[in-house]
Amino acid sequence: MLNYAPLHVRVSTPRIELVGATDSLLEQLQGVVRAGKADAEPAPYDDPMSLYESDPDARVRQWLLGIWRGRGSVTSSFWRLYFVVMLDGEPVGMQDLVGDGFATFGSVTTFSWLSRDVRGRGLGTEMRHAILHLAFDGFGAVAATTDAFLDNDGSNGVSRALGYQQNGTDWATRRGEPGQLQRWRLTREEWLRHRRGDIHLHGVAECREALSLP
């Protein structure tokens, strides 16, 4: 494994593990992307790692390029950490953590997707619990934000259940078409009310140093 601290971070819960997205893990996960199992209806996002390409080879290529570009643009003012979601030892999706001006604002944003084979089991909530634990307990965040299209009941339901508060609306595109987003914000104080004691962090100190976190 490359000696790059964010790739050595792990977040473990009783159900899943978030593991730094090494090329080896991405290779294991690419079958899910190639098969189109990362897609969903209603479409949840447009993202630099577009998963909408109709050609499977192009879809995998765009997905990988998006992650590699993100790895290569880590600075003290902006970073995006990529984690593969492991369920019973198998990769089933991804969970990202984004810090834009984190040293100044202390706020993070989350982004995720999950293979359609394992949806509907509460794993989306478990993934969010895990990444929020890393953000608040591991990195000392003061707030976390996320958003989802108004008709994405699953993502909006997870945010509501974890104590996020509605934070206005916005517009974005999915498959190039405009759609309205519901924005959500979770404060550290509210997260502490939902904080779990069965989530464990590994490799965080080295990652904090790599991201120039205080």
From TrEMBL:
Residues 38-189 form the N-acetyltransferase domain. Keywords: Transferase. It comes from the Bacteria. InterPro entries: Acyl_CoA_acyltransferase (IPR016181), GNAT_dom (IPR000182). The keyword Cell inner membrane does not apply. Pfam families: Acetyltransf_3. One of its GO terms (molecular function) is acyltransferase activity, transferring groups other than amino-acyl groups. This is N-acetyltransferase.
